[in-house]
Amino acid sequence: MNSRSLITFLALVSGAIAGPVSTSMSNDGKTNYELKSIFDPPPSHGCDALAVRSSGAGSDEAMEFNAVSDFTTYWYNRKEVQLNTNTSLGNTSSWQTVVIPKASPLTDNSSSHYRGGASGSISVTANHRGGLIYLGYPASMSSSSSNPSLERAISLNARALDKDKNYDEYSLFVATEIPADWRAFTGFNSVTITGKEWASLPLNKQQSLKQYVHLGGTLRVVQADESVAISLDVKESKSRHEGMGRILLVDEPKTPRSQDGDIVKRLLTAPQFSSSIPDNKQPGPLTVLGVLALGILIGPVNLFVFTRKKRHKLFFTIPLIATAASLVFVIVILMEDGIGGNGKRIAFVTLSPETASSTVFQQQASRCGALLGTSFSFSEPTLVMPISSLELDRENGGSVSLSQTGTEFSGGWFKSRQKQVQTVSSVIPSRARIDVGKQAGTEESPKRSFTNTTNTAIQQFAFVDKKNNYYASSKTLNPGDSVTITAKTGGNTAGLDYVSESANSLDSRTRNELTKLLRAGGQIIAFADDAPELCIDTLDSIEWDSSPAVLIQAVID
Q1: What pLDDT is stored for residue 424 in this prediction?
Q2: Of the candidates 358, 344, 349, 345, which has an alpha carbon nearest to the alpha carbon of residue 458?
């Protein structure tokens, strides 16, 4: 899987831009439009970030910004997906940034594995001043030919690269232009900026980068002074795990020895339990017999029995038979599949008491019967990545249309009689936390108290402090319950016991990642076997058979 790292360069003049700009004009020639790419080149996955600006007539009028992301795979059959994103903008006389989810790829495999290949693109239009405007997508200025090496990046004052030492796989951006939206960074495994740039960012943009780290990204800060280190809570060491990701302080822009977190792969990986969800259901015997009976009834029986002497009755009997058959088919489908659907999901929740929020990364798989509605919405900006396993769906091609307007989702995210595998990511307001008391007892036998102030029961948790003391409990903590634990030594070799149901359901790779987070110290790892309160709800008509959660929370002593 090709994934990029994101690097900044210092603008030489005020207002300099990292990405390319395309220009267009209204049909009457009275309004000019500029469309700019924040990242150059844009990522292949996750989200793209564009900025639009108008000048001339109507620049202070509202604009409807429309982007269509296409992704087409060619394997046993052509499969095309369109993701339509609509955003309402106000005054566009100054740059307005729009985050655009990308439709590519809708599979947990690299596009290089497709026997027939794959392609993707984004087209952009706007409704402004009563007319439709075609905004040309900006062509990338960065490429392997124009920026072939690390030396070239440094000569542009760029700031560092990706884990595989593939120096073509990075993108440029200007720190002051990034949106205050964590979704914009989900196409990159790492983001690297300077300490001065971090200090110059407003709080909401700093927070969006931290939320990206919580999801599994890596933030590298070059030449950070003491104040920056304190703001990132990276004081004594030059690295710190936060959520599922990591923050690193580096002296110069070079590839670190430790690997960056692979957030892109995580966003595009099907959950292990998806194989336990039934695949798309083929028509059952009742449906096949019904189609055969309809053909006989509407054809020879209708022609030679119902209307044998009065052919003009065909105008009435055909629609009546078709209507009655439709009702029968609906009843048969409801009998075979039921209404709504069933599925399984698991949420990885990073609790952030200091910002009263939680970052949620959720994997889910479901299969639907008959759906009476397919639209759903969220209260906060959310990224939904649909994943289809083409190996299990070789015979099914066609196209899928997905739509997103703000936090409203509609279209083919969920379909009747089909299986869906998705990852869902969001940052939601939350006061949920696990309170950790100060160290008590003796140096040889330290103790700490832990209080569950979430709204769900926790079956297991573990914590390693800065002194390498290891605290663990397999006692169920209901909301409001507390427990005092005497620590064990040797936190650098601590291991999660996986005694809870949710812990046992994890795949080996995720277990290893969580064990590394635990041994790194400073974060609680907790498991809740049934925590629908911490999960993100999508389609209301789906009943989730299980809703476990893994809770991660940094502890600041």
Answers
A1: 95
A2: 349
- Inform me whether the pLDDT recorded for 19 exceeds 90: no
Question: Residue 365's pLDDT band (boundaries 50, 70, 90)?
Answer: very high
Report residue 421 as tokens.
């595998």
**CA nearest to 160, candidates 68, 93, 255, 73:** 255
Q: How many CA atoms lie within 13 A of 121 on its CB side?
A: 7
Helix or strand holding residue 514 (H, E): helix 508-520
Q: Where are the domains of the chain?
A: 4-195, 285-337, 339-374+414-557
Q: Which amino acid is at 375?
A: S
374-422 pLDDT, tens digit per residue, is: 999 999 999 998 886 444 444 456 678 899 998 999 998 998 878 889 9
Q: CA-to-CA distance for 95 and 54, rounded, in angstroms? A: 8
Contact (CB, 8 A) for 53 and 89: no
DSSP notation for 267-314:
HT---GGGGGS--PPPPPHHHHHHHHHHHHIIIIIIIIIITSS-GGGH
Q: What is the DSSP string of 127-185?
A: EETTEEEEEPPPPPS--TTTS-SHHHHHHTTB----TT--TTSEEEE-GGG--S-GGGG
Residue 388: HSE in the Cβ half-sphere, 13 Å Cα cutoff: 25
Q: What is the mean pLDDT of residues 294-311?
A: 67
The tens digit of pLDDT for each residue in 227-262 reads 999 889 887 778 888 999 999 898 776 544 444 567
Q: What's the pLDDT score for residue 63?
A: 96
Distance separating alpha carbons of residues 245 and 378, to the nearest angstrom:
25
Q: Is the pLDDT of residue 105 over 50?
A: yes
Cα 520 to its chain centre, rounded Å, is 26
Give the model's pLDDT for residue 507.
Answer: 85
- Total count of residues recorded for the chain: 557
User: Among positive and negative, which fits the CA dihedral 322, 327, 332, 337?
Assistant: positive
Cα 269 to Cα 3: distance, rounded to the nearest angstrom: 14
Task: State the Cα–Cα distance between residues 451 and 466, nearest whole angstrom.
Answer: 20
Kindly report, residue by residue over 44-76, the tens digit of the pLDDT: 888 999 999 999 999 999 999 999 998 877 765
User: 353: which DSSP letter?
Assistant: G
CA dihedral 75, 78, 82, 83 (to 10 degrees): -20
Give me the residues paired with residue 359 across strands.
350, 427
Q: Which two tokens stand for residue 115?
A: 């026997």
User: Taken in order 170, 171, 176, 180, is the CA torsion positive or negative?
Assistant: negative
As given in the structure block, the two tokens for residue 310 are 């009065």
Q: How far is CA 232 from CA 209, 226, 272, 342, in A?
A: 11, 10, 34, 42
State the average pLDDT for the chain. 81
Contact in structure between 3 and 265 (CB atoms under 8 Å): yes
Q: Quick check: helix, strand or coil at residue 557?
A: coil
Candidate from 182-191, 252-261, 475-484, 508-517 with smallest mean pLDDT: 252-261
